[in-house]
Write a structure and sequence with these properties.
The complex is a heterodimer of chains A (407) and B (169). With 407 residues, chain A is mainly alpha-helical. In chain A, 70% of the residues lie in helices and 0% in strands. Classes of the chains: A mainly alpha (407), B mainly alpha (169).
């Protein structure tokens, strides 16, 4: 065992030797090392978060045919640090009549609900936050519940109508889009036979689950964007109608916590896309080739996972800066009348096909799963098209009647 | 005292304190938020018992659904959400007697139980708790009948809710 193949174990053994050498009891030393590990992960995530600000601004600039930050440092890389200094030295305001304690807890809870997601993300086969947690998929939903709570606390405690309406909208969206998301989390669970993320990643060799369930990946992406509250589902912030939604009254670093939490949340869900449907830290089977066995290092695995997360994040940004905002009633109708039934049917079809094709060859299994997904998606779109055409005809018919009455 | 016992005592104090605050806070939203923290304490207790699945379900169902629903109901029914209601209503003595009676009953019942003084046997390595739970819920020798009856009840409740809120034109 060397530093290259298992850095965490080597480091923790080394630290344990030092701490016990100082006369510290072993149990205390182990708890201390555990806390150091958590601190390391959170610190790395926060540093990454700083650069996500830069990435987001650069990418949106390219989508809008601009250059983006380019004055401070090479390619504007120092810009996010300037942003942070600005946020820190801004006046920290609390609106009159606000509920002080709840108002100050909300941004912390929002950031926390994102950071605790990383407890279940396996960065490499050896680097797992909580060992053997066979409930990884459900854990995402539980963390999302705490995020929902933070938004409702922020909206209520601000003593501001805009903030309250924004919080109402966001909570309605999150509570409803949780259902297709939870259903889609069950589909990799069916394939892997476990809800733990490490088992789900290990089961994606040789083929990633995207090939078995492309429709599930798309539905999960839509539900994730709604959960994140990003465009086209960003009516919680809706600048043109609600000032800034639930975080209207927040200034300085408290606003910064919501903003940084949102960026890290989007990146994290990009990571979940990578883990659930694109093989997580696996390099598409390349590391299983004997000649390339040196790829089996946590450093390579972490890099691969972060690259996949970045790709998912880029897709989420692409959607955000391309589509316009949808009205809240359309959005909830889309979820309850289209996405939720579709995801339930997809779950049943996948479970049935899995039971039927379990013993067959890999290519038969893959083809059967892929085709059932494509056919189901096509039927759903056809049903939606017929329905929307009828609705439109009804509205246009009413319009022509009204015009006739006017003349 | 082992580390686990210290953690359990802290969590139990936190849960009980939150529960007390639910009852005595004058603001309804604060009471709902204290309820969230009490439910979270229960989830931590499950996690201490190595029941990770129950802990997560506790957070998803009670905090993610029920507590949010409570807060919504309070927000939608109160005119001013900062109003301070009376701390107790007329039934406070009945509630107090009931809770003391339940505590005393459980206390005396558990005194005669041999498991109270013993230590739990260790969970064998590789024990798949969720798999066992799933098998128990769906096997004819297990709990398939109560499970199905409960799901029929939930469907009936769902249909009833839709019927009550349906707006006939």
């Amino acid at each position: 065992m060397s530093f290259w193949t298992d850095p965490l174990k080597v480091t923790s053994d080394w630290l344990l030797g030092i701490f016990t050498g100082w006369g510290m009891p072993e149990i205390v030393a182990q708890i201390l090392i555990g806390f150091l590990g958590i601190f390391l992960l959170v610190a790395l995530l926060m540093v990454l978060d700083i650069f996500l600000v830069w990435i987001e601004r650069k990418v949106v600039a390219r989508f809008q045919d601009r250059i983006g930050p380019n004055r401070l440092g090479p390619w504007g890389l120092i810009q996010p640090f300037a942003d942070i200094i600005k946020l820190i030295i801004k006046e920290d305001t609390t609106p009159g009549g606000a509920d002080r304690v709840v108002y100050n807890i909300a941004p912390m809870l929002s950031m926390m609900s994102v950071l605790i997601l990383w407890a279940v993300i396996p960065l490499a086969p050896q680097i797992i936050g909580v060992e053997d947690l066979n409930i990884g998929a459900l854990y995402i939903i539980a963390a999302g519940a705490i995020g929902t709570l933070s938004i409702i606390m922020a909206g209520w405690s601000s003593n501001n109508k805009f903030a309250l309406i924004g919080a109402f909208r966001q909570v309605a969206v999150m509570v409803s889009f949780e259902i297709p998301m939870l259903t889609m989390l069950l589909i990799p669970t069916i394939f892997a036979g476990s809800m733990g993320f490490n088992a789900i990643i290990q089961a994606q060799y040789p083929l990633p689950f995207f090939l078995f369930a492309p429709l599930a990946a798309v539905i999960f992406l839509i539900a994730a964007i709604a959960e994140l509250g990003r465009a086209p589902f960003d009516m919680a912030e809706g600048e043109s109608e609600l000032v800034a939604g639930f975080n209207t009254e927040y200034s300085g670093m408290k606003f910064g916590m919501f903003y940084a939490g949102e960026l890290l949340h989007a990146f994290t869900f990009g990571g979940f896309m990578g883990i659930l449907f694109f093989g997580g830290y696996g390099l598409f089977g390349l590391e299983k080739i004997p000649a390339l066995a040196w790829l089996n290092s946590p450093f390579i695995h972490i890099f691969v996972l972060l690259a996949k997360a970045m790709f998912g994040y880029w897709i989420i940004m692409w959607i955000k800066y391309t589509l316009m905002r949808i009205r809240i009633d359309h959005m909830l109708a889309f979820n309850w009348k289209f996405l939720t039934p579709l995801s339930f049917v997809l779950l049943m079809v996948t479970a049935l096909m899995n039971a039927l094709l379990k013993g067959s060859a890999l290519w038969v299994y893959t083809l059967g799963m892929f085709l059932s997904n494509v056919v189901l998606g096509w039927i759903a779109l056809e049903v939606a098209r017929v329905y929307s055409r009828r609705e439109r005809a009804k509205v246009e018919g009413l319009k022509s009647v009204a015009e006739a009455a006017q003349h | 005292m082992t580390g686990e016992q210290i953690i359990f005592l802290l969590v139990a104090l936190f849960t009980l304190g939150s529960g007390l605050m639910v009852v005595i806070s004058r603001n309804l939203i604060h009471a709902a938020l204290w309820l969230v923290s009490a439910l979270f304490g229960v989830a931590v207790t499950y996690a201490l018992l190595s029941a990770a699945f129950l802990a997560v379900v506790q957070v998803v169902v009670y905090i993610g659904a029920i507590a949010i629903l409570f807060i919504f109901a309070v927000m939608l029914t109160r005119k001013d959400m900062r109003d301070q209601g009376p701390q107790m209503n007329a039934n406070w003595w009945f509630g107090a007697i009931l809770s003391v009676a339940v505590f005393a009953g459980l206390f005396f019942l558990l005194q005669g139980w041999s498991g109270l003084a013993g230590t739990a046997s260790a969970i064998p390595a590789g024990f798949d708790a969720i798999g066992e739970l799933g098998d128990a819920l769906t096997s004819p020798n297990g709990y398939v009948l109560p499970f199905e009856v409960a799901s029929v009840l939930l469907v009936a409740a769902l249909v009833g809710a839709v019927y009550v809120s349906f707006n006939r034109k």
